[in-house]
């Protein structure tokens, strides 16, 4: 046996349910709604630009033509600088290692793309990570934290080795770290 409601009755039922739902949400204390929001932090644009500028300048002093990038904790590009005469491959190459330092390394309790690359090299179960989009398991990027919270990463590409890139990235981080509060 099917229950058929006239169109007016069905419309009245839908309106009644929608009204009840609206009243229920409107009368819910704001503290309950606020608990379902997530608050995150990221570096200001000015600090991010200062960090990449310092990283590129540090490498330039050593004769290296590099690019530097700061990403937020989600891996979103926040600031980028391609130094004078930096090869074209540095533009794309810097992102993957920096994404690793912002996203994967902290999950493993690490703070650099070099440390994450070393961890993957000795753990065959992690080898598949290298095939994920935007992942470059090579040295040259450092996690940025404000206290214990990961707020991003800074990376450099174009030096004669990842250790040189990482040193320049650390110089960029050192330039701003006292203001990460």
Relevant terms:
7 helices, Beta-Lactamase, alpha+beta, single chain, 15% strand
Rg estimate, integer Å: 24 Å
Read across the widest sheet, the strand sequence of neighbours is 2-1-4-3
Number of helices: 7
- The averaged pLDDT comes out at 87
Distance separating the two termini: 67 Å
Predict the CATH topology: Beta-Lactamase
Give a count of the beta strands, DSSP E runs of length 2 or more: 4
Order of SSEs: HHHEEHHHEEH
CATH architecture: 2-Layer Sandwich
- Profile the largest sheet: 4 strands, antiparallel
Low-confidence stretches: 7-18
Structure explained in plain terms:
The chain is α+β, with helices and mostly antiparallel strands. The protein has one domain (45-179): Beta-Lactamase. The protein is built from seven helices and four strands. The protein has helices spanning 7-26, 30-34, 45-61, 89-102, 104-107, 113-122, 162-176, and strands spanning 67-72, 77-82, 141-146, 149-157. It has a four-stranded antiparallel β-sheet. The protein is globular and about 45 Å long. The relative contact order is 0.17.
Concise structural overview:
The chain has 181 residues and is α+β, with helices and mostly antiparallel strands.
């Amino acid at each position: 046996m099917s229950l058929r409601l006239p169109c007016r009755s069905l419309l009245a039922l839908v309106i009644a349910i929608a009204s009840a739902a609206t009243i229920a949400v409107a009368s819910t204390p704001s503290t309950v709604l606020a608990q379902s929001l997530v608050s995150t932090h990221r570096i200001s644009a000015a600090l991010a630009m200062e960090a990449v500028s310092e990283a590129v300048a540090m490498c330039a002093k050593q004769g290296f033509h590099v690019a530097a990038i700061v990403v937020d904790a989600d891996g979103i590009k926040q600031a980028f600088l391609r130094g004078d005469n930096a090869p074209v491959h540095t533009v794309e190459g810097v992102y993957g290692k920096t994404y690793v330092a912002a996203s994967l390394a902290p999950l493993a309790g690490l703070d650099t793309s070099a440390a994450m690359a070393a961890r993957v090299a000795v753990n065959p179960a992690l080898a598949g990570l290298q095939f994920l989009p935007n992942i470059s398991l090579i040295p040259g990027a450092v996690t940025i934290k404000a206290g214990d919270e990961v707020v991003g990463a800074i990376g450099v590409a174009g030096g004669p080795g990842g250790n040189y890139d990482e040193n320049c990235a650390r110089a960029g981080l050192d330039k701003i770290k006292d203001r990460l509060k």
